[in-house]
Write a structure and sequence with these properties.
Layout (H helix, E strand, L loop, with lengths): L2 H23 L7 E5 L5 H9 L4 E4 L2 H9 L8 E4 L8 H7 L2 E5 L2 H14 L3 E8 L9 E2 L3 H11 L2 E7 L8 H18 L5 E3 L6 H6 L4 E4 L1 H4 L8
Parallel strand pairs: 1-2, 1-9, 2-3, 3-4, 4-5, 5-6, 5-7, 7-8
Helix pairs in contact: 3-4, 4-5, 5-6
The structure holds pyridoxal-5'-phosphate (PLP).
Length: about 230
């Protein structure tokens, strides 16, 4: 089987899972975006997924992504998300390739990204990453700090708050985490009307996330296969 056939078969399977989950939840398929997480996979795989119709891609390391995206400038309409932990000193570099940063979890990072977006003369779409169990060592902002961070993002004028993202913690049932994230976003919408996105669910738990209101599932393994362990 060629890589193209393999990716086509994987995509068909993922699409069917998403469609079934939407149907079960009484939601329209168009309410859920499929974000392909292409970290560790070559630019040629992104080209194949693009030919198969995908337009939204995500990476988790600035350096790898910058190199990959620069080879893929010819993919008209492709949109790139940063979903990994981000150090402030990478802000300038990340705005060169990312259309959206989904992992904003501190006021200081928001300020650095705002400054970088301002210098580039663009508005940057961002999601606020939430740590549902409050263990912020794995990234994310604890729920009690969400309001302050959302305020800092919006006040900057250079960032547009599009919603929130979480990775379900290992310490609780995913459904509980997804429910909590959805209610965080509902709370955000009062003060920040652009904050409508709920990014939740990965290869292993996308059905659960869709049933709890996810508007974006981030899928790596189920589309591309198991990642080999790579050194940074
Ligand atoms: C790698 C990654 C994913 C995709 O995970 P899979 O289990 O491979 O689908 C989703 N979200 C984030 C933040 C990731 O780093």
């Amino acid at each position: 089987m060629s890589r193209r056939e393999e990716l086509a078969a994987n995509l068909a399977e993922v699409e069917e899972r998403i469609a079934k989950a939407c149907e079960a939840a009484g939601r329209d398929r168009s309410e859920v975006m499929l974000l392909a997480v292409t970290k560790t996979w070559p630019a040629s795989d992104v080209e194949l997924l693009y030919e198969l119709g995908l337009r939204n891609f995500a990476e988790n390391r600035d350096q790898e992504a910058g190199a990959k995206v620069s080879q893929l400038r010819h993919l008209d309409g492709a949109r790139w998300h940063m979903v990994g932990r981000l150090q402030r000193n990478k802000s300038k570099s990340v705005v060169e390739w990312a259309d959206q940063v989904d992992s904003v979890d501190s006021v200081r990072l928001a300020e650095a990204l705002a400054k970088a977006a301002h210098a580039k003369g663009t508005k940057l779409d961002v999601l606020l990453q939430v740590s549902i169990d409050g263990d912020t060592s794995r990234g994310g902002c604890a729920i009690p700090d969400v309001g302050e961070l959302a305020g800092a993002i919006t006040r900057s004028g250079d960032l547009i708050l599009r919603g929130a993202m979480t990775v379900a913690p290992l310490t609780m049932k995913p459904s509980q985490a997804f429910e909590a994230l959805a209610s965080v976003v509902t709370g955000l919408r009062d003060d920040h009307p652009t904050a409508t996105e709920v990014s939740a669910g990965m290869s292993g738990d996308l059905e659960d996330a869709i049933s709890h209101g996810s508007t974006c599932v981030r899928v790596g393994t189920a589309l591309l296969g198991s990642r080999r362990l790579t050194l940074p």
